[in-house]
Design goal:
heterodimer; A: 312 residues; alpha/beta; Rossmann fold; Alpha-Beta Plaits; six-stranded mixed β-sheet; 13 strands; B: 261 residues; mainly alpha; 9 helices; disordered N terminus
Chain lengths: 312, 261
């Protein structure tokens, strides 16, 4: 059944993915509305990519219900995929073919006529700033160029919904900013974006709404501001003491903050009014090496929700 | 927007033909050279010894004429197996061509069938070249020899389908060398290409009868020499087709397990 205007583009209820005994996605509920940029945040192995692959109709769900563009991936996979653009986590470009040929070949998978693909390819190469490399092979391109080409390729069918799995992982800062700029423009053109990332700045830059995933479940949901408001304090005071004194000092500051976190080189105080607390630290006659007052970020939320322990 | 209504598998085939158009120069030399070298050295060189020996050729035929159609079938096997090992692994793991296709309207079976159709086309192309070389060498005796082309495709696909299943279920390319060493090369040497399998010890002879290569060789030889019987053709075609059906089913299962997870 085709979607109605008010229906979400992606609707998941109790969506589950199991590989044998291992549960990669454990009964998540997600709604993505037309025109928004929606993010899946989470550490490695949280289940983001598995979720994306189910939404992309390449991986069958093990349980729950999933509707993409109002259709059922199990039944209408090809029809749904015809209207999706996918930027996979690992590039799947044909290195032997040229930049332009990669777009031509890919457009044919969608059954587009060659003249249409050629015209769109020219526009898209312009859009991702690869026009001058159109006829060079893909192999020698930089990581950022390959990523941009993958994005151009995903747009050849003029998709309504673009799925990006860690679009900027491994890129240098310049390349990331160029990509963000292009993604922002796509959003302005009305393309719905769903992306996974473990970069907080990326999520804050691009996402209207996001969910934080950890251990196969959704642990928080909202806009970046809402998440900061509900899962962290307004500001953070970072107080540095000489090595080995953090623990002792933290206990003397505990009553000043909603929450205290001790790191090897500093103590973090989660507070509403950072300047006031910074002043109070000095009034207590403690002599920190340095005091920094900053606003809470998504990274604080992320680390609070998913922990500082390394996940591999 | 006009969208082609061609079966989705043809869109996958189109990719492979596109990629072949970029790379054919590298392979065309060996496609021509291989039959020339083999027919010259084995067919003419070794053949002159065989033909002048007490046996006077093989089954009353000059050795070149005996060898050529069988070598055509064996070449189809080699091309098919080569094209079904590394390219399949690359499309799954290294270049991820299949994954790129699967993000589009194409499904796993479209991807599989399109690639298999390409192998069939590739085997056909190689066989056309081979048959042309055979003709130049004077090893063709009947217009029926044209039928060795579909026979070669059938032989190639009897190998391509199970090898697709094998390649798609491997984690690395390590098994491929063993496949060539322990399956392809022994079949090439003992599958009835260079001498009649009746010359083998009885146990090996029975084993050779069971291999798809021997059926491909017998079919090809019978057609090229005009000695094929209807019963023989039906038997060989049915046997090779059975391999394709079972191999195709195994390949589909392996592809679904590997790509639709």
């Amino acid at each position: 059944m085709p979607e109605t205007p008010t229906e979400p583009l992606v609707l998941a209820r109790g969506l589950t993915k199991r590989f044998g005994d291992f549960t990669a996605v454990d009964g998540i509920d997600v709604e993505v509305r037309r025109g928004e940029a929606f993010g899946f945040l989470g550490p490695n192995g949280a289940g983001k990519s598995s979720t994306m692959r189910m939404i992309g109709c390449v991986s069958p769900a093990t349980g729950g219900t999933l509707r993409v563009l109002g259709m059922d991936p199990a039944r209408d996979g090809p029809r749904i995929r015809a209207r999706l653009g996918v930027v996979p986590q690992e590039d799947s470009l044909d290195l032997e073919l040229t930049v332009r040929e990669n777009l031509l070949v890919y457009g044919r998978y969608f059954g587009l006529p060659r003249p249409v693909i050629r015209e769109r390819a020219a526009q898209l190469l312009d859009f991702v700033q690869l026009t001058d490399r159109a006829d060079s092979k893909v192999e020698p391109l930089s990581g950022g160029m390959k990523r941009r080409l993958t994005i151009a390729r995903s747009l050849i069918s003029e998709p309504e919904l673009l799925l990006l799995d860690e679009p900027t992982t491994g890129l240098d800062p310049q390349a990331r900013h160029v990509l963000w700029d292009r993604l922002f423009r796509l959003k302005q053109q009305g393309v719905t974006l769903i992306l996974t990332t473990h970069y907080m700045d990326e999520a804050e830059q691009l996402c209207d709404r996001l969910v934080v995933m950890d251990k196969a479940r959704i642990v928080a949901e909202g806009s970046p501001q809402e998440l900061i408001a509900s899962h962290s304090s307004r500001e953070v005071v970072e107080v540095r003491f000489p090595p080995d004194e953090q623990e002792a000092m933290a206990s003397k500051l505990a009553d000043l903050a909603e929450r205290v976190e001790v790191l090897p080189d500093r103590v973090l105080l989660y507070v509403e009014d950072g300047d006031a607390v910074a002043g109070a630290v000095h009034e207590r006659g403690l002599h920190p090496i340095g005091v920094l007052v900053r606003r809470s970020t998504l990274e604080d939320v992320f680390l609070r929700l998913t922990g500082r322990t390394l996940v591999d | 927007m006009a969208v082609s209504s061609a079966p989705l598998a043809l869109r996958s085939l189109e990719y492979w033909t596109y990629q072949y158009r970029r790379t054919w120069r590298g392979s065309i030399v060996s496609t021509v050279l291989f039959p020339v070298l083999f027919l010259a050295s084995m067919g003419l060189g070794l053949g002159s010894l065989v033909d002048s020996s007490a046996s006077r050729g093989v089954d009353g035929l000059p050795y070149l004429v005996f060898l050529a159609p069988a070598l055509l079938a064996a070449t189809a096997m080699q091309t098919a197996v080569t094209e079904s090992t590394y390219p399949v692994m690359a499309s799954i793991k290294w270049v991820k061509t299949y994954h790129a296709m699967l993000a589009t309207p194409l499904g796993v079976l479209d991807v599989l069938v399109g690639h298999l159709l390409y192998i069939a086309a590739r085997v056909l192309l190689g066989s056309v070249v081979f048959l042309a070389v055979m003709t130049v060498f004077g090893a063709v005796r009947s217009p029926l020899a044209l039928l060795t082309l579909p026979a070669a495709v059938l032989t190639g696909m009897a190998f391509a389908t199970p090898v697709f299943a094998f390649a798609a279920s491997r984690d690395s390319e390590e098994g491929f060398a063993a496949l060539f060493r322990f399956v392809v090369t022994p079949l090439f040497l003992f599958g009835g290409v260079f001498f009649p399998i009746e010359q083998l010890p009885p146990l090996l002879e029975q084993l050779a009868y069971a291999t798809p290569l021997w059926h491909g060789v017998a079919l090809s030889r019978g057609l090229a020499l005009g000695t094929a019987t209807a019963g023989g053709v039906v038997l060989h075609v049915a046997y090779l087709s059975a391999w394709i059906v079972v191999g195709g089913w195994l390949a589909a299962r392996a592809f679904l397990r590997r790509l639709a997870v």
